[in-house]
Amino acid sequence: MIEHKSPGDIERMHVTGQFLGQVLAELGDLAEVGVNLLDLEHHARRRIKERGAESCYWDYEPSFGKGPFRNVVCLSVNDAVLHGLPHSYKLRDGDLVTMDMAVTIDGWAADSAYSVVVGTPSPEDLRLIEATEVALEAAIEVALPGNRLGDISAAIGAVAREYGYPVNLEFGGHGIGRTMHEELHIPNDGRAGRGWKLRPGLTLAIEPWFAAGTDKIVYDPDGWTIRSADGSRTAHSEHTVAVTESGPLVLTRRPQAAEGRQEARKSPATGR
């Protein structure tokens, strides 16, 4: 069943999303050379406990994966892109790290992710991250009443082709609300004008992710961490978005000050 949320429900999801955006911003600031991934995990755990929130990842046990997930944030480094299992690893200069979190507050969920480069970035990595961010914004722009789910997928796929990156269709966006994963799968490519008709109250987690050289993936022995099959770098951007009468509302925007700090860490990417 696909639930269309009331304006009050969306506002409650917005509260969750604002908290999540803040925590992700903090993790981005902490991700420096020499910092252990487990330090990021423990910071997220503390913030969730302080807020009285609940992690959507803890004890998550889907059809893939090896046993229940016993962490609150996915941390994926370099060629890892999804479901990176936090482990004892100190970040190195030039590492590309993706942070992905989902939490609930008072029964309402939000899900978000973004990628940053630690230390000295390469133009190629910045361009890859930029592609996921541009694709996410393009997808958000078409999350309008009367449009179709395929319009979102097509917007992501068009940006991937513009940048020259292949697209994997196995993992993509999804419905979200009372739980992290609700009905509707959002592939990261598709045909405009097809699929579920968007109506006010629909809430979606939109999440373009690309690997620089392939659309094939492999799993680590941990059963969770997903990597590009050719070892090429990867990046991932995600927001929780509500379709409203007045247009798309992004529920998980990170604070503007934090966005500015992240931009300051970058050097100009090679053009689109």
From TrEMBL:
Its cofactor is Co(2+); Zn(2+); Mn(2+); Fe(2+). Residues 235-272 are annotated as: Disordered. It holds the Pfam family Peptidase_M24. One of its GO terms (molecular function) is initiator methionyl aminopeptidase activity. Residues 12-245 form the Peptidase M24 domain. GO terms for biological process: proteolysis. Its EC number is 3.4.11.18. The keyword Metal-binding applies. Keywords: Aminopeptidase, Hydrolase, Metal-binding, Protease. A divalent metal cation 1 binds at D100, D111, E238. A divalent metal cation 2 binds at D111, H174, E207, E238. Removes the N-terminal methionine from nascent proteins. The N-terminal methionine is often cleaved when the second residue in the primary sequence is small and uncharged (Met-Ala-, Cys, Gly, Pro, Ser, Thr, or Val). Requires deformylation of the N(alpha)-formylated initiator methionine before it can be hydrolyzed. Monomer. Belongs to the peptidase M24A family. Methionine aminopeptidase type 1 subfamily. This is Methionine aminopeptidase. It comes from Streptomyces apricus. The lineage of its organism: Bacteria, Bacillati, Actinomycetota, Actinomycetes, Kitasatosporales.
